[in-house]
Amino acid sequence: MTTGASPSLVRQATCVACAGRAILIEGPSGAGKTSLALELIDRGAVLVGDDGVVLEPRAGHLVARPHPRTAGLIEVRNLGILDEPFCAEARVCLHILLDSSAPRFIEKAQGIELAGLVIPSLRLSPESGPMAIKAERALAVHGLGPATR
Fold first, then answer.
1. What CATH number should be reported for the domain holding residue 126?
2. Residue in 21, 70, 66, 16 with CA at minimum distance from that of residue 46
3. What is the pLDDT along the chain (149 residues), one digit of tens a residue?
4. pTM of this prediction?
5. Mutual orientation of helices 131-142 and 33-42 as an angle, nearest 10°?
6. Looking at the 3D structure of the chain, how many domains does it have?
7. Domain of 133?
8. What is the CA radius of gyration of the chain?
9. Distance CA 26, CA 125 (A)
């Protein structure tokens, strides 16, 4: 029997939770996904998953979980694979694509469909720092708000 709900999917991405609201970070290899995650973690975010997360629609929200094989691990370029405290799941409120050709200005966030749900999405140039501050501002301005019950 099918329920009509989209199944969970594995995405090659890095994800952190800022006060319970997750930012899903994507981009090509070497673009700085983990570096941005580390900067956000240094500012109080918590790792959800690095280089692979499981996305699942749940009650109208997109939930990110660490991939079971890499839960609690973060690959830091030049240092190796390190243990990192992580949260078991968080609601995805913003998608960031690291892209050197990102536009200089936007009026509003685009949307990306993931597991049947549309999430606000922004392209940020990894060369245009300060990335963590931009990501936090993007979450505040363009991200989905905290879940209400």
1. 3.40.50.300
2. 16
3. 344 556 789 999 999 999 999 999 999 988 999 999 999 999 999 999 999 999 999 999 999 999 999 999 999 999 999 999 999 999 999 999 999 988 898 989 999 999 999 999 999 999 888 999 999 999 999 999 876 54
4. 0.92
5. 80
6. 1
7. 9-142
8. 15
9. 12
